[in-house]
Amino acid sequence: MNHQAKSIRPFIGAKNYAISRQFYLDLGFKESSIEPNMSYFYSGEFGFYLQNYYAKDWIDNTMVFMEVEDVYAFWNELQELRLPEKYVGVKIVPVRELAWGRECFVHDPSGILWHFGNFNT
């Protein structure tokens, strides 16, 4: 089977759609509204769908990994945003070095766990 994939766009939910939309804009994503309860958020050619839907078990088990060019530069910019002070429930976890590369973490306002990192070359 030869996929020749052009993109993968996960769907993630939001406990409070308006708050999550603003959070992702603050995080630097651009938004393209699809309908009143769904938007496509993207950075470059990569993105995800945010929908106004919340199922606790689903959200509590959702993780997304986004590879960035320089995780340390990303971490420094992330700290400057002061997201945990602006949004209830948001947590950020510093960069950690692992055998395969490095990553930091962000818990969004709904509880979705984002990994931002880069791989050893």
Shape, per Cα inertia axes? globular
> N-to-C terminal Cα separation, in Å?
28 Å
Order of helices and strands: EHEEEHEHHEEE
- Provide the gyration radius in Å: 15 Å
Low-confidence stretches: none
Please state the oligomeric state of the protein chains shown.
Answer: single chain
- Major sheet description: 4 strands, mixed
Which strand order spans the largest sheet, edge to edge or round the barrel?
1-4-3-2
Number of strands: 8
> Roughly what percent helix?
10-25%
The proportion of strand residues reads: 35-45%
Individual helix count: 4
Structural class: alpha/beta
Account of the 3D structure:
A four-stranded mixed sheet has the order 1-4-3-2, covered by helices on one side. The protein has a four-stranded mixed sheet with strand order 5-8-7-6, covered by helices on one side. It is globular, with a radius of gyration of 15 Å. It is built from four helices and eight strands. It is α/β, with parallel strands linked by helices and 121 residues long. Strand 2 (30-35) and strand 3 form a beta hairpin.
